[in-house]
UniProtKB/TrEMBL annotation, chain A:
Name under which the protein is recorded: ABC transporter permease
UniProt keyword Cytoplasm, yes or no: no
Membrane spanning stretches: 9-34, 54-76, 88-105, 111-132, 141-160, 197-215, 245-265, 323-342
Keyword terms: Cell membrane, Membrane, Transmembrane, Transmembrane helix
Organism: Streptomyces sindenensis
Compartments, as annotated in UniProt: Cell membrane
UniProt-listed InterPro entries: ABC_transp_permease (IPR001851)
Mode of membrane association: Multi-pass membrane protein
Taxonomic classification: Bacteria, Bacillati, Actinomycetota, Actinomycetes, Kitasatosporales
Automatic annotation (TrEMBL), chain B:
PANTHER family: CARBOHYDRATE TRANSPORT ATP-BINDING PROTEIN MG119-RELATED, GALACTOFURANOSE TRANSPORTER ATP-BINDING PROTEIN YTFR
Single annotated GO MF: ATP binding
Superkingdom as given in the UniProt entry: Bacteria
Chain segments carrying region Disordered: 505-527
UniProt keywords, alphabetically: ATP-binding, Nucleotide-binding, Repeat, Transport
Location of the ABC transporter domain: 18-250, 267-515
Name of this protein: ABC transporter ATP-binding protein
SMART domains linked to this entry: AAA
Automatic annotation (TrEMBL), chain C:
Subcellular localization: Cell membrane
Keyword Lipid biosynthesis annotated: no
Topology with respect to the bilayer: Multi-pass membrane protein
InterPro entries: ABC_transp_permease
Name of this chain's protein: ABC transporter permease
Entry keywords, A to Z: Cell membrane, Membrane, Transmembrane, Transmembrane helix
Transmembrane portions of the chain: 22-44, 56-74, 81-102, 201-230, 261-285, 297-321, 333-351, 358-377
UniProt KW Transmembrane helix keyword: yes
Length: 372, 527, 421, 324
């Protein structure tokens, strides 16, 4: 096996690189076909990404995406498709903001309280789907889609001034009230114009490490992966599959609950009608693109955040910024297709090698035994 | 031989039904077939034997157009052919019953049969009529509108055969058709085969049960490590010789030599009841009044046609189902409602009947499969953390000691042949010094060499005081290995027998419900 | 003592045969019972709109796009390909439908909508079938791509055209609508009598024969047509076999790739038709963001309906019905539904008691009591909760009904020719 | 398409920019009106304008970045269209003290270089209510709001009050299409259609829809039923996309974002930048009822009542509520 390692490394890189090239070529074709300058948009995007403030924006956004994608990935690892991350993080952020705004505690405690509330709410919301799946067999795909919309309604109701929200004087917005400064998560200042990197971005990175550690180094993680790989085999091995489904749904929801925290604790300090939406769905893309692997997810989150932010100013230069969306779709497709092609190519190569060796007179068994 | 090529068929010297010449097929890391030559005469039953992974199924898939050979030629009735897909092979009158059922569970028998052959008799009443016609002609007893998932294995096997006959195949490939059948069913199948042969059909037959092979085949080809190593004439070959040809060693026997049964009870089951509720609300008993005790050093064999509650019994013992009544005692602990993990930790080993569903994670590497089921035990973990390094080292030991044929411990379980997967499972379960072992079909689909190893391991552990519950469809194995035999029928233990005196035929008839009570005079059941 | 001397005459441990099918009379009975209950609630609450002709018409109009997406999902998943890209294919349908529709008339629009959807389906087929990529990844990517492409193209195709903008197409001529002359009026009158059951029935029939767009008729017919094609023709048998056991199909000479391609392309076409319906019939224009997640809802309706056309239609109908209910004076209508729910739960209580499941019975009773209290203490439901009605209803129906969902066995499982066991 | 470029095309060299709200240019309402103001300024004041669109579901940080970039490249004023820009402007404005920041529909953030452009939507809606109450024969009128936000509730509040003050026996049916942050209620015309149909079935014969593009569905349904529509934001009688239904559009409640934007740009160019709250009400014709449908202007008693109410609001005799 050892001797294939270098090849494997090359092949491992060949995939993504091939994919990016193909995606760029296709995007260029689209630009050409619509009669636009095929290179200028890239230049604008890279130039825009060279500004410190855009870089900070990219990193902050990637942190948020990373958490959402981790939440999705926990589910995927169990063969659960949590489409509900979106509803979970919105509801969690809203409740956490409410609680955060209504108490005044010393700094770390205040932040901890907010974060814990967010995790609990997220877990509660996904837990409904988990509960329905384990007790009533309701597909989590359906229930989480429904719960997303129900979360929207619930948030809309709770944020009404007559319930828990407030309408700042002179504003047409509704908010949950501002969290006192003790509940703000300090960020890393990057200079006057650039703004600061949310402190929670580092927490997100920590979550990635934790995710890796739990999945690969703990008994629980093994059980979780086993259940995802084969529910029946896991059950026979002593895993309580139902409990596992519920647990991983709860974890997924708790992590989803964190997805709103970078923004809430680092920037807005309140939940309002214009709190970012749709992050849960982007999280699905990123988790899939990163193949549920913590490092892969991190790279994907950065990539998608880069495309998002660096394309934001395209329209000011007369280019349609939808081109970045097209590019995103093309990248996702070509990356996964190339993974597959590279995998098959690897297999063919291996096959060839074995054939050659055989032709050279080595018996199959020696090949096998040598590998031991 | 291929020089015979050009396709003029003389009535006088009719060409062989199938000629395979120089077939080579490579898979990643494995050469499944290497320069294989086989000629099969018309109207004969030709058996193919060989170890697990010898390349039998691959060869047949090539003949059936499912896989393309890397090299070599195929001639049917003297005419050279090249099949792009099974459709082409079917058109040439080839039919194949696969080693694993090729049935859509959620389809009716009728749908499964007509699929792909809709042009023959339509998909409605015409087809139903034809199916009944064939079913009656061969006594298959097929119900066209039954859902396949509701059928037992024997019925499924018959559906598979009917699928082939429905298409009017002249050349039948049967890949291990008897692995899941009881003797009576095997006899019925063989009767059918002889009938088919009399009608001029050619049958290619694969089996690990050499006795069967000798009884039904006209000619035998032995394959070893992907290539033909010889042919045998069943009339003057013994199973022993055949086995030697296959593996270069003696035919193993499951015979238990000396009794090691002690009178220390290891597992005691009293009044076990299990019911299931169907989606429509009806409650059925699947296990009723199950009582038995297994002592240290004892192998209790349970005979029975599949689907009579064996699976449920195993699952109740493993804690995968919660019994409605009854007590299960392991040693001195009541484990009736203990979770599976606790049972495994307290010393129950489990060789599942369906290894792909319950035994391995197909897409996980071998060393992770070694952890499966014993994640809380040493050497796999320390406290809450996994000990991957120790697990890997121990996997290497298992691979060595249990002769698992694999290029390494990082390959996925799926890339091992079934027999080797089984050896890994046995090795894993034995590595935790079980007090009580559930062995369900421990050698199903496993070649003779591996069979012997597995039997040896069970015997050895038994000598050291292991209690074993053995469930098997292979009655020779059951009789040979067990100290005590019980027969399960419709969720109850209806009969018991002494393995020393009972014959497979007698046991077989008890399994169909024809006999009950104690099957032989001598009452030496250890209770 | 253990070995009994007689063979117990217990039912065979094999599974029963008749457990799957609800016979037609039973289904009709359930529907009639449901209708009677709704009617009762209507009479008690006075929310006469819940079975009015307009309500049923509205429900139908809102259900059709969801149903078409669901039908699309059904085709793909019956052939073993998960299609989470329905949303994207629907978006393509709205865009292409409107683009061709405003220039060459609505029917050409419908055709292009279908073709647009097919394009998405074909792409999904190439990625999943030929390249063997994870179906969900591919679907998600198609959703992104469809959004990007349509928005991008709008800048060139609609911006600057009379009545259009970069977000919206010019108006498309409407498709003819049919009303069954005498029947429609008669039903309308009957419905307005507000009689128990009769008026409700009249409302439903009236809703189905009044101002029906021809495309709605087509969409409705597609449900039985799908059933017939998939369950009564050799083509359908082969297609479904690819979703249940592609390897078995392969061994019988079925070209699995071909059927998967066809199925997924048709799937896209149906979702595209749903999009075209939205653009041409529901609204008369393309509007960015118009599909608004209906592809996902369609997917949910399909799972709700157990991968069967009838069940899927029922699911889509449920969404359409509750959606329409909430849009047509939700506060009052949905308030009436509280009562319905409470009564349903009472029935559930008795059922659970009969089944001796006391805990579930107690829970159901408690929730029911809560609902009754809520109903009698208020006369409106906050509009925010009204909005959630379709989703809550679906969740409730799913969790209260016995779950025997069964997806095609090989759905989502990658398949490569010649690699089967 | 090709719109403004980065380099100033006007000889004047002054630059102004608007940053759009969700929907962006082409929404045929709010954002388009703002664009019209910019375009007018480009033409009349010889300035060069820039536009920037938001992406779906973005956060404050993106808006901060967008405004910063627009300000940094020398645009003055920089106008955020929509209340969602409030937190961003609060952060950016102090960093560019020489640049004027305009924000539409928000008066909560204040600063020396911030101009808060707000409208008395409720006043225009009040007049619509008066007209509706006068015109209805069935004594039932409908209100359709796109998304249930405080802003749209202002429309509802004014309308209901106008109806009730005119004829207390008239019943108002309010209906919202979606809840925030699901802004589909502004972009799904079929929802508007279903809601309008429901109100028509309940005998409503005048329906006021404040639902952005979803309103076109309502207008279609109402027009087919031969009843009256009241449009919103711009004069929908003149809107090309709705030409087929114009006869049924009795009037529209207008909100003059165009002039508001233009005025702000002009004030900056004139060297006297507007700052603080700039309120556009009936008095300044910032909101009002359109009078382009001859069928409406012919209803003299209705017009009379509307004019009277308008005067009373301007005179402060009537105060219109901003929340129902
Ligand atoms: N599709 C495949 N991909 C990779 N390897 C394969 C594939 N099919 C078979 N093999 C390998 O080829 C070898 C021969 O397998 P084959 O199934 O022909 O054995 P067999 O003689 O039928 O064994 P058994 O008696 O267990 O059925 C095995 O090592 C097997 O692992
Ligand atoms: N696509 C594949 N890639 C890798 N290995 C494969 C593939 N398909 C089949 N195999 C392996 O090749 C072997 C050939 O299949 P086959 O079913 O003949 O094996 P087997 O030894 O008879 O297994 P069993 O005893 O479980 O029936 C199996 O072990 C299977 O796991
Ligand atoms: Mg085989
Ligand atoms: Mg085998």
């Amino acid at each position: 096996m050892k001797k294939f390692d270098k090849d494997r490394l090359i092949l491992g890189f060949a995939g993504p690189v091939l994919a990016l090239v193909v995606a760029l070529v296709l995007t260029t074709v689209v630009l050409l076909a619509s009669g636009q300058n095929p290179f200028e948009p890239y230049r604008i995007m890279f130039e825009s990404a060279s500004y410190a403030d855009v870089q900070v924006l990219i990193i902050n956004q990637a942190g948020t995406y990373y958490l959402a994608a981790l939440a999705v990935a926990v589910g995927f690892r169990m063969n659960l498709f949590n489409i509900g991350v979106d509803g979970q993080y919105r509801l969690a952020a809203m409740m956490a903001a409410l609680v955060g705004a209504s108490v005044d505690l010393p700094g770390p405690l205040h932040i901890a309280l907010i974060v814990i509330v967010a995790m609990l709410v997220g877990a509660f919301w996904s837990g409904i789907a988990g509960f329905l799946k384990t007790t009533r067999g309701v597909s989590e795909v359906v229930s989480t889609i429904m719960l997303n919309s129900i979360a929207t309604a619930l948030v809309a109701w709770m944020i009404l001034p007559k319930n828990f929200g407030e309408q700042p004087p002179g504003s047409n917005n509704l908010t949950t009230g501002e969290i006192p400064e003790s509940g703000w998560f300090p960020g890393l200042p990057m200079g006057d114009m650039a703004g600061e990197i949310y402190g929670f971005t580092f927490v997100a990175a920590g979550c990635g490490v934790l995710y890796w550690f739990v999945l690969n180094r703990t008994r629980f993680g093994f059980d979780l992966r086993a259940t995802g790989a084969s529910e029946t085999a896991a059950q026979a091995s002593g895993v309580d599959a139902k409990k596992m489904i519920l647990t991983s749904m709860l974890i997924s929801g708790a992590v989803a609950g964190l997805a709103g925290m970078p923004t809430l604790l680092g920037d807005t300090h309140t939940y309002s009608l214009d709190f970012p939406t749709g992050i849960g769905f982007t999280g699905i893309t990123i988790a899939l693109l990163g193949r549920n692997n913590p490092l892969g997810i991190a790279l994907s989150a950065l990539l998608i955040a880069f495309l998002d932010k660096s394309s934001a100013s395209l329209d000011q230069y007369g280019y349609e910024k939808e081109i970045a969306t097209i590019m995103q779709g093309l990248i996702v497709i070509s990356v996964v297709v190339s993974y597959e092609l590279v995998r098959r190519y690897g297999i063919r190569r291996q096959q060839q090698k074995v054939g050659e060796e055989l032709a050279a007179g080595h018996a199959l068994t020696t090949e096998k035994e040598a590998a031991l | 031989m291929s020089g015979q090529g050009e396709c003029v068929i003389n009535a006088s010297s009719s060409p062989p039904a199938v000629e395979l010449h120089g077939i080579t097929k490579r898979f990643p890391g494995v050469v499944a077939n290497h320069d294989i030559d086989i000629t099969i005469g018309k109207g004969t039953v030709h058996a193919l034997v060989g170890e697990n992974g010898a390349g039998k199924s691959t060869l047949m898939k090539i003949l059936y157009g499912m896989q393309k050979p890397d090299e070599g030629t195929i001639a049917i009735d003297g005419e050279q052919v090249s099949f792009a897909n099974p459709g082409d092979a079917i058109e040439r009158g080839i039919g194949m019953v696969h080693q694993h059922f090729m049935l859509a569970d959620n389809f009716t028998v009728l749908e499964n049969v007509v699929l792909g052959g809709e042009k023959l008799y339509g998909i409605g009443s015409g087809a139903r009529k034809k199916i009944m016609e064939i079913s009656d002609a061969y006594g298959l007893g097929i119900r066209p509108d039954a859902l396949v998932e509701d059928l037992g294995v024997a019925d499924r096997q018959r559906v598979e055969i009917l699928k082939v006959l429905y298409r009017g195949a002249r050349i039948l490939i049967l890949d291990e058709p008897t692995a899941v059948l009881v003797p009576q069913e095997v006899d019925a199948l063989f009767a059918n085969l002889r009938e088919l042969k009399a009608e001029g059909l050619t049958v290619i037959f694969i089996s690990h049960k050499l006795g069967e092979v000798l009884s039904v085949a006209d000619e035998i080809t032995v394959i070893r490590r992907g290539t033909t190593v010889g042919t045998a004439d069943p009339a003057n070959t013994t199973t022993k010789q055949l086995a030697e040809l296959m593996v270069g060693s003696e035919l193993p026997s499951p015979e238990t030599r000396e009794s090691t049964v002690t009178d220390v009870p290891m597992l005691r089951v009293q009044g076990l009841e299990l019911t299931v509720t169907d989606p429509d609300g009806t409650v059925r008993d699947v296990l009723a009044g199950i009582d038995f005790t297994i002592h240290q050093g004892e192998v209790l064999g349970i005979a029975g046609v599949e689907g009579n509650g064996q699976t449920e019994l195993i699952e109740a013992l493993m804690g995968m189902r919660d019994p409605d009544a009854g007590v299960i005692t392991l040693g001195s602990d009541d484990i009736s409602h203990a979770p599976t993990r606790k049972r495994r930790e307290s010393g129950i080993g489990y060789i599942p009947e369906d290894r792909h569903r319950h035994g391995v994670l197909l897409n996980a590497p071998l060393w992770e499969n070694r952890i499966l089921g014993h994640v809380t035990e040493k050497p796999n973990s320390r406290g809450w953390l996994l000990d991957n390094k120790a697990a890997r080292t121990d996997t290497e030991r298992i691979v060595r000691e249990y002769d698992v044929r694999t290029p390494g411990i990082d390959v996925t379980a799926a890339s091992l042949s079934g027999g080797n997967q089984q050896k890994l499972i046995v090795g894993r379960e034995m590595s935790h010094a079980p007090k009580f072992l559930i062995a369900a079909h421990p050698t199903r689909g496993v070649d003779v060499g591996a069979q012997a190893q597995i039997w040896d391991q069970i015997r050895e552990a038994r000598r050291e005081g292991l209690a074993v519950l053995l469930i098997s469809a292979d009655l020779d194995e059951l009789i040979g290995l067990s100290d005590t035999l019980r027969v399960m029928y419709r969720g109850r233990l209806v009969a018991d027998a002494d393995p020393a005196t009972i014959t497979p035929e007698e046991l077989g008839s008890a399994m169909t419900g024809a006999a009950a009570g104690h099957l032989e005079g001598s009452e030496d059941e250890a209770r | 003592m253990s070995a009994s001397k007689t063979i117990a005459a217990r039912p065979a441990p094999k599974k029963g045969k008749d457990r799957r099918k609800l016979s037609l009379p039973v289904v009709l009975l359930i529907i009639a019972g449901g209708l009677a209950l709704v009617s009762l609630v209507r009479v008690i609450s006075g929310a006469n709109d819940i079975t009015s002709v307009g309500q049923v018409r509205g429900a139908l109009a809102l259900a059709v796009p969801i149903g078409l997406a669901g039908l699309g999902g059904l085709w793909a998943e019956r052939a073993g390909v998960i299609n989470i890209g329905l949303e994207g294919m629907m978006i393509l349908g709205t865009w292409f439908g409107a683009w061709a529709g405003f220039q060459w008339g609505p029917w050409v629009g419908v055709l292009f909508g279908v073709l647009g959807g097919c394009l998405g389906g074909l792409l999904h087929a190439i990625i999943t079938v030929t390249f063997g990529v994870n179906h969900i990844v591919s679907g998600v990517a198609i959703n992104i791509l469809a959004v990007g492409v349509t928005r991008y193209l709008s800048n060139f195709a609609f911006d600057g055209v009379q009545g259009g903008s970069s977000k919206q197409s010019p108006r498309i001529d409407p498709i003819d609508r049919i009303t069954v002359p005498g029947l429609s009026d008669w039903m309308q009158d009957l419905q307005q009598q507000h009689w128990f059951l009769i008026s409700d029935l009249a409302g439903i029939i009236g809703g189905l024969v009044t101002g029906l767009s021809l495309l709605t008729v087509v969409a409705l017919l597609l449900v039985p047509a799908t059933w017939w094609i998939l369950w009564r023709t050799p083509f359908g048998l082969r297609l479904r076999s690819c979703g249940e056991s592609p390897v078995a199909a392969e061994t019988l000479g079925v070209n699995v790739y071909k059927y998967k391609y066809i199925a997924v392309t048709v799937s896209g076409g149906l979702a595209g038709l749903g999009g075209a319906f939205l653009a041409i019939v529901s609204t008369g224009i393309y509007q960015e963001g118009q599909t608004g997640g209906r592809g996902y809802i369609g997917l949910a309706a399909m799972i709700f309906g157990n991968w069967m056309p009838g069940g899927m239609a029922l699911g889509a109908g449920l969404f359409g019905f509750t959606d329409s209910l909430k849009l047509r004076g939700g506060a009052e209508n949905v308030h009436a539904m509280l009562l319905l729910l409470a009564i349903l739960l009472v029935i559930a209580v008795f059922w659970q008691l009969y089944k001796k499941k006391y805990v579930s019975a107690a829970i159901a009773a408690a929730v029911s009591a809560l609902l009754f209290t809520w109903y009698f203490l208020t006369d409106q439901v906050p509009s925010q909760f009204v909005d959630a009605a379709p989703y809550v209803t679906t969740l409730l129906v799913l969790s209260l009904s016995a779950q025997r969902l069964r997806m095609p066995k090989a759905n989502g499982v990658p398949y490569r020719k010649g690699e089967g066991k | 398409g090709e719109n403004s470029s980065d380099s100033g095309s006007g000889s004047g060299g002054d630059k102004a920019a608007i940053a759009y709200d969700i929907g962006g240019r082409g929404d045929q309402s709010f954002n388009d009106a703002a664009y019209a103001g910019l375009a007018k300024a480009e033409k009349d004041l010889d300035i060069s304008g820039s536009e920037a669109e938001p992406s779906d579901g973005e956060g404050d940080a993106d808006k901060v970045q967008r405004l910063t970039e627009l300000a940094r490249s020398g645009n003055n004023p920089v106008i955020g269209v929509g209340f969602a820009y409030a937190p961003a402007i609060k952060k950016v404005a102090p960093k560019f003290p020489k640049t004027t920041f305009g924000i539409i529909d928000d008066a909560s953030v204040t600063g020396d270089n911030i101009a808060n452009i707000v409208f008395n939507e409720e006043q225009g809606s009040y007049l619509a209510g008066v007209a509706a109450a006068k015109v209805t024969k069935s004594k039932t009128v409908g209100f359709i709001g796109g998304v249930e936000t405080p802003l749209i509730k202002k429309f509802e509040a004014g309308f209901v009050q106008g109806v009730k003050d005119t004829d207390a026996s008239v019943n108002v049916l309010p209906q919202y299409l979606t809840q925030p942050p699901d802004f589909g209620g502004f972009s799904k015309p079929d929802l508007g259609k279903a809601a309008a149909q429901g109100q028509l079935d309940k005998k409503a014969d005048v329906i006021y829809s404040a639902a952005g593009l979803a309103g076109s569905g309502a207008i279609e349904a109402v027009s087919k039923a031969g009843k009256w529509n009241i449009g919103v934001d711009s004069d929908q009688y003149k809107q090309k996309g709705l030409a087929a239904y114009k006869e049924s559009i009795l009037t529209s409640v207008t909100k003059d974002v165009e002039d508001a934007v233009f005025n702000l740009i002009k004030s900056v160019q004139d060297g006297k930048p507007e700052t603080g709250e700039i309120r556009y009400g009936l008095d300044k014709d910032g909101v009002g009822l359109s009078m382009s449908n001859p069928a409406f202007t012919k209803m003299t008693d209705v017009i009379e009542a509307v004019d009277k109410a308008k005067q009373e609001i301007i005179d402060g005799k009537i105060t219109v509520k901003t929340a129902p």
